[in-house]
Specification:
With 442 residues, this protein is an all-beta fold. The protein folds into 2 domains: 384 residues, Regulator of chromosome condensation 1/beta-lactamase-inhibitor protein II (Methylamine Dehydrogenase, Chain H, 7 Propeller); 44 residues, no CATH class. The strands form 8 sheets. It has a 5-stranded mixed β-sheet with strand order 1-2-3-4-29, with no helix packed on it. A hairpin with a 6-residue loop joins strand 32 and strand 33. It is globular. Its EC number is 2.3.2.26. Pfam families: RCC1 (PF00415), WD40_RLD (PF25390). Keywords: Acyltransferase, Receptor, Repeat, Transferase.
Amino acid sequence: MMMSEEATDPPPRVLLISAGANHSVALLSGGVVCSWGRGEDGQLGHGDTDDRLLPTKVSALEGQDIVSITCGADHTVAHSVSGNAVYSWGWGDFGRLGHGDPSDLLIPHPIRALQGLKVKQIACGDSHCLALTNNGDLLSWGRNQNGQLGLGTENDSLVPQQVQKFQGVAIKMVAAGAEHSAAISEDGVLYAWGWGRYGNLGLGDRNDRSIPERVTVDGSKMIMVACGWRHTICVSSGGAVYTSGWSKYGQLGHGDFEDCLVPCRIQALNKMFISQVSGGWRHTMALTSNGLLFGWGWNKFGQVGVGHNFDCSCPMRVNFPQEQRVSEVACGWRHTIAVTQSGNVYSWGRGANGQLGHGQTIDRNFPMIIEALSFEGSFGQHMEESSNVCPSSGKVPLSVSQKYAVVPDENGKRKAIKGGMEERVEVDEVEANVPQFTHSSQ
């Protein structure tokens, strides 16, 4: 008697990864989204503000057919292709969530202004977002104090608005840094706008731009762009890498610590064909077409992944067990995540909030496998699940005074320390009821 063969589902795998300031997200086959790391602003999407040390499924997105995920510094965005919907959650200040107000959201909510649009790509910066549609239109929203929205003003936008500069120009790819943005057109032209005081716009000066301007890159056609916090990385059709902007920690990869006001080619990678780049707060990663991963820049927490904690001004190869090759890489502010071709996920760098996904709060200066997401680990078997949350709940309005303790810097300029953040974040506008010089109780 013949035995009928039972159909078997393909094994689960990680499709996409993204990293924020102190949190991480992954999209798994089957449309499953999981997140881990710092949750103080709701950026994990689990309905609370708790940190997660291990990958945890975002229950509110179950069954939503998610096809892409993107981290901002303290917020997250996901795109559902079946419903043509874009969801956002996390820290809401300056309108970065696109819902028309600055409230925090602890679970994913659809952005009404983008409902029904066929979205091709979303890029998140520190406090602003960009959405590229299939027909090449670009929309932006969030903070705009340096013109990073490309709208010709410096006014924040609480909802997505179309970038008029690109009407009639088909855009292929977009990227967002802390306070600047970049785009590549279908015909290979690089554009940049926003904060430019380190030369990160690549326009030859240190001026801000509120409208996108064309950047000349060695006469070459560009096919890819990424932004670090205050630097820009682009790749030509020939696989060459160019960087511009801030280089205090060697994040431009030119062997020195000098800023570049125009895109300069990284000579150390001349013989490589680069297929992906990613920018962190002060470090950079580049992936070659044959799966080799290189990193450089700030390395205080081991985020470059080369086994030590010294800054690297030249590209250094990141090694993986059994010489595994890499298929995808994502930089957070102080940590890095990579997916290998053999289906394993590794992370390294800062681990204080559990953003490495290892179940600990330990920094790592070399790639360490995330067991819950890897073929050679316990893929999905021990993954935690967030409790189901009512979609209409999870909205938390907080004033600036509740989030910040405003303190003077060494020059008397007002700054603010947010939550448990290690670095100080400049605050250009604070509510009038905030005391001028109150000190954090931390």
